[in-house]
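Field: COMPLEX_INPUT
Field: COMPONENT_COUNT = three
Field: RESIDUE_TOTAL = 215
Field: MODE = joint
Values follow.
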Amino acid sequence: MKTQMSHLSTWINDGDLFREKIRELDKEYGPQNWWPRILDIEDHAFEVALGAILTQNTAWQNVEKALARLADKKLVDPFAILKSNIRTLERCVHPSGYYKQKTKKLCGLSKFVVDECGGHISELKKDKRARDRLLSIWGVGPETADTILLYGLELPNFVIDTYTRRLLVLLTGSESWKNCSYDEAQEFCSLAIPKSVKSWQQVHALIVAWGKVQK
DNA sequence: CTCCAGGGGGCCA
DNA sequence: TGGCCCCATGGA
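Field: COMPLEX_OUTPUT
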Protein backbone atom coordinates (compact mmCIF):
# COMPACT_ATOMS: atom_id res chain seq x y z
CA MET A 1 0.00 0.00 0.00
CA LYS A 2 1.36 3.31 -1.08
CA THR A 3 1.00 6.53 0.82
CA GLN A 4 -0.58 9.31 -1.21
CA MET A 5 2.01 11.95 -2.04
CA SER A 6 -0.40 14.65 -0.90
CA HIS A 7 -0.35 13.08 2.54
CA LEU A 8 3.39 12.81 2.86
CA SER A 9 4.22 16.21 4.30
CA THR A 10 1.22 16.32 6.59
CA TRP A 11 1.89 12.79 7.81
CA ILE A 12 5.36 13.87 8.92
CA ASN A 13 3.96 16.78 10.90
CA ASP A 14 1.04 14.77 12.25
CA GLY A 15 3.47 12.04 13.27
CA ASP A 16 5.44 14.52 15.35
CA LEU A 17 2.27 15.70 17.06
CA PHE A 18 1.19 12.12 17.66
CA ARG A 19 4.51 11.03 19.18
CA GLU A 20 4.63 14.12 21.37
CA LYS A 21 1.12 13.45 22.68
CA ILE A 22 1.99 9.84 23.39
CA ARG A 23 5.06 10.90 25.36
CA GLU A 24 2.83 13.20 27.36
CA LEU A 25 0.26 10.48 28.04
CA ASP A 26 3.00 8.05 28.95
CA LYS A 27 4.30 10.46 31.58
CA GLU A 28 0.78 11.07 32.87
CA TYR A 29 -0.57 7.52 32.99
CA GLY A 30 2.53 5.34 33.17
CA PRO A 31 2.69 1.66 32.18
CA GLN A 32 -0.78 0.26 31.44
CA ASN A 33 0.15 -3.39 31.30
CA TRP A 34 -2.95 -4.59 29.48
CA TRP A 35 -3.45 -8.33 29.32
CA PRO A 36 -0.12 -9.29 30.89
CA ARG A 37 0.85 -12.79 29.83
CA ILE A 38 0.88 -15.16 32.76
CA LEU A 39 -0.20 -18.31 30.97
CA ASP A 40 1.65 -19.98 28.14
CA ILE A 41 1.23 -18.26 24.79
CA GLU A 42 -1.57 -20.58 23.64
CA ASP A 43 -3.88 -20.20 26.62
CA HIS A 44 -3.08 -16.51 26.77
CA ALA A 45 -3.81 -15.91 23.11
CA PHE A 46 -7.11 -17.73 23.18
CA GLU A 47 -8.23 -15.87 26.28
CA VAL A 48 -7.32 -12.58 24.62
CA ALA A 49 -9.25 -13.59 21.51
CA LEU A 50 -12.37 -14.23 23.60
CA GLY A 51 -11.95 -10.90 25.37
CA ALA A 52 -11.37 -9.07 22.09
CA ILE A 53 -14.70 -10.29 20.76
CA LEU A 54 -16.60 -9.77 23.99
CA THR A 55 -15.38 -6.19 24.33
CA GLN A 56 -16.81 -5.08 20.98
CA ASN A 57 -18.69 -1.85 21.68
CA THR A 58 -18.84 -2.87 25.32
CA ALA A 59 -17.39 -1.63 28.60
CA TRP A 60 -14.53 -3.84 29.79
CA GLN A 61 -16.14 -4.21 33.19
CA ASN A 62 -18.96 -6.21 31.59
CA VAL A 63 -16.48 -8.29 29.64
CA GLU A 64 -14.76 -9.37 32.85
CA LYS A 65 -18.01 -10.76 34.17
CA ALA A 66 -18.54 -12.81 31.05
CA LEU A 67 -14.94 -14.06 31.04
CA ALA A 68 -15.24 -15.04 34.70
CA ARG A 69 -18.35 -17.09 33.94
CA LEU A 70 -16.62 -18.80 31.03
CA ALA A 71 -13.56 -19.56 33.18
CA ASP A 72 -15.78 -20.85 35.95
CA LYS A 73 -17.25 -23.41 33.54
CA LYS A 74 -13.84 -24.27 32.07
CA LEU A 75 -14.90 -22.83 28.73
CA VAL A 76 -11.79 -20.81 27.95
CA ASP A 77 -10.88 -23.49 25.44
CA PRO A 78 -11.97 -23.88 21.81
CA PHE A 79 -12.85 -27.57 22.14
CA ALA A 80 -14.85 -26.97 25.31
CA ILE A 81 -16.75 -24.13 23.68
CA LEU A 82 -17.68 -26.28 20.69
CA LYS A 83 -18.85 -29.10 22.96
CA SER A 84 -20.85 -26.78 25.18
CA ASN A 85 -24.50 -26.08 24.45
CA ILE A 86 -25.64 -22.69 23.24
CA ARG A 87 -27.78 -21.88 26.25
CA THR A 88 -24.85 -22.40 28.63
CA LEU A 89 -22.63 -20.22 26.49
CA GLU A 90 -25.28 -17.53 26.23
CA ARG A 91 -25.66 -17.42 30.00
CA CYS A 92 -21.91 -16.88 30.33
CA VAL A 93 -21.76 -14.22 27.62
CA HIS A 94 -24.92 -12.44 28.74
CA PRO A 95 -23.42 -9.69 30.96
CA SER A 96 -21.26 -8.41 28.10
CA GLY A 97 -24.27 -7.60 25.94
CA TYR A 98 -25.14 -8.63 22.37
CA TYR A 99 -25.07 -12.07 23.90
CA LYS A 100 -26.67 -13.98 21.02
CA GLN A 101 -24.33 -12.52 18.42
CA LYS A 102 -21.27 -12.81 20.63
CA THR A 103 -22.05 -16.43 21.42
CA LYS A 104 -22.06 -17.15 17.68
CA LYS A 105 -18.82 -15.27 17.32
CA LEU A 106 -17.11 -17.27 20.06
CA CYS A 107 -18.27 -20.48 18.39
CA GLY A 108 -17.01 -19.25 15.03
CA LEU A 109 -13.65 -18.39 16.51
CA SER A 110 -13.44 -21.77 18.23
CA LYS A 111 -14.36 -23.61 15.06
CA PHE A 112 -11.65 -21.72 13.22
CA VAL A 113 -9.05 -22.59 15.84
CA VAL A 114 -10.01 -26.26 15.91
CA ASP A 115 -10.50 -26.77 12.18
CA GLU A 116 -7.84 -24.50 10.77
CA CYS A 117 -5.19 -24.17 13.46
CA GLY A 118 -5.11 -27.70 14.78
CA GLY A 119 -6.66 -26.45 18.00
CA HIS A 120 -3.88 -23.98 18.67
CA ILE A 121 -4.49 -20.33 17.87
CA SER A 122 -0.81 -19.66 18.61
CA GLU A 123 0.00 -21.51 15.39
CA LEU A 124 -0.92 -18.22 13.72
CA LYS A 125 2.24 -16.70 15.14
CA LYS A 126 4.19 -18.45 12.41
CA ASP A 127 1.79 -17.49 9.63
CA LYS A 128 2.47 -14.38 7.58
CA ARG A 129 -1.19 -14.28 6.61
CA ALA A 130 -2.44 -14.50 10.19
CA ARG A 131 -4.34 -11.23 9.99
CA ASP A 132 -6.23 -12.18 6.84
CA ARG A 133 -7.09 -15.55 8.32
CA LEU A 134 -8.50 -13.91 11.45
CA LEU A 135 -10.46 -11.47 9.30
CA SER A 136 -12.07 -14.40 7.52
CA ILE A 137 -13.84 -15.36 10.76
CA TRP A 138 -17.42 -14.07 11.04
CA GLY A 139 -17.43 -11.49 13.83
CA VAL A 140 -13.74 -10.62 13.64
CA GLY A 141 -13.10 -7.24 12.03
CA PRO A 142 -9.86 -5.24 11.79
CA GLU A 143 -9.77 -3.94 15.35
CA THR A 144 -10.56 -7.32 16.87
CA ALA A 145 -8.01 -9.05 14.65
CA ASP A 146 -5.29 -6.56 15.51
CA THR A 147 -6.11 -6.79 19.21
CA ILE A 148 -5.68 -10.56 19.06
CA LEU A 149 -2.43 -10.20 17.13
CA LEU A 150 -0.91 -7.46 19.30
CA TYR A 151 -1.99 -8.53 22.79
CA GLY A 152 -2.62 -12.23 22.30
CA LEU A 153 0.02 -13.35 19.85
CA GLU A 154 2.45 -10.54 20.60
CA LEU A 155 2.87 -9.55 16.97
CA PRO A 156 3.44 -5.92 15.92
CA ASN A 157 -0.01 -4.93 14.62
CA PHE A 158 -1.13 -1.44 15.59
CA VAL A 159 -4.69 -1.33 16.94
CA ILE A 160 -6.94 1.48 15.72
CA ASP A 161 -10.14 2.32 17.57
CA THR A 162 -12.53 5.26 17.79
CA TYR A 163 -10.39 6.86 20.50
CA THR A 164 -7.37 6.77 18.20
CA ARG A 165 -9.33 8.55 15.47
CA ARG A 166 -10.70 11.05 17.99
CA LEU A 167 -7.21 11.81 19.28
CA LEU A 168 -5.82 12.27 15.76
CA VAL A 169 -8.66 14.63 14.84
CA LEU A 170 -8.03 16.65 17.98
CA LEU A 171 -4.25 16.75 17.52
CA THR A 172 -4.20 17.60 13.84
CA GLY A 173 -7.43 19.54 13.49
CA SER A 174 -8.27 17.39 10.49
CA GLU A 175 -11.62 15.60 10.38
CA SER A 176 -10.23 13.21 7.79
CA TRP A 177 -8.89 10.93 10.52
CA LYS A 178 -12.45 10.28 11.55
CA ASN A 179 -13.55 9.00 8.17
CA CYS A 180 -10.41 7.51 6.66
CA SER A 181 -10.14 3.78 6.23
CA TYR A 182 -8.93 1.60 9.08
CA ASP A 183 -5.90 0.57 7.07
CA GLU A 184 -4.89 4.16 6.39
CA ALA A 185 -5.09 5.13 10.05
CA GLN A 186 -3.13 2.00 10.93
CA GLU A 187 -0.44 2.75 8.38
CA PHE A 188 -0.03 6.24 9.76
CA CYS A 189 0.28 5.11 13.36
CA SER A 190 2.58 2.24 12.43
CA LEU A 191 4.93 4.66 10.72
CA ALA A 192 4.70 7.27 13.49
CA ILE A 193 5.66 4.98 16.37
CA PRO A 194 8.75 2.76 16.06
CA LYS A 195 7.66 -0.84 15.56
CA SER A 196 7.70 -2.72 18.84
CA VAL A 197 5.11 -5.04 20.35
CA LYS A 198 5.60 -3.65 23.83
CA SER A 199 5.41 -0.02 22.81
CA TRP A 200 2.44 -0.51 20.49
CA GLN A 201 0.62 -2.32 23.28
CA GLN A 202 1.36 0.58 25.59
CA VAL A 203 0.42 3.26 23.05
CA HIS A 204 -3.00 1.80 22.34
CA ALA A 205 -3.70 1.36 26.05
CA LEU A 206 -2.63 4.97 26.69
CA ILE A 207 -4.99 6.23 24.00
CA VAL A 208 -7.86 4.32 25.60
CA ALA A 209 -6.91 5.70 29.01
CA TRP A 210 -6.98 9.16 27.47
CA GLY A 211 -10.30 8.51 25.76
CA LYS A 212 -12.01 7.37 28.90
CA VAL A 213 -11.40 10.64 30.70
CA GLN A 214 -12.54 12.77 27.77
CA LYS A 215 -16.02 14.19 28.07
C1' DC B 1 -34.70 8.65 32.24
C1' DT B 2 -30.89 9.02 28.74
C1' DC B 3 -26.48 7.90 27.04
C1' DC B 4 -22.91 4.99 25.52
C1' DA B 5 -19.00 1.60 26.25
C1' DG B 6 -11.83 -0.83 23.86
C1' DG B 7 -17.25 -3.13 16.80
C1' DG B 8 -18.91 -5.75 13.19
C1' DG B 9 -22.25 -7.54 9.82
C1' DG B 10 -25.95 -6.78 6.52
C1' DC B 11 -28.10 -3.99 3.25
C1' DC B 12 -28.58 -0.48 -0.12
C1' DA B 13 -27.42 3.36 -3.34
C1' DT C 1 -16.90 2.86 -0.66
C1' DG C 2 -20.17 5.11 2.53
C1' DG C 3 -24.10 5.71 5.33
C1' DC C 4 -27.49 3.44 8.32
C1' DC C 5 -29.54 0.16 11.22
C1' DC C 6 -29.26 -3.76 14.24
C1' DC C 7 -27.45 -6.17 18.09
C1' DA C 8 -28.11 -5.69 24.29
C1' DT C 9 -26.23 -5.29 29.07
C1' DG C 10 -24.98 -2.37 32.88
C1' DG C 11 -23.00 1.73 34.97
C1' DA C 12 -22.94 6.82 35.24
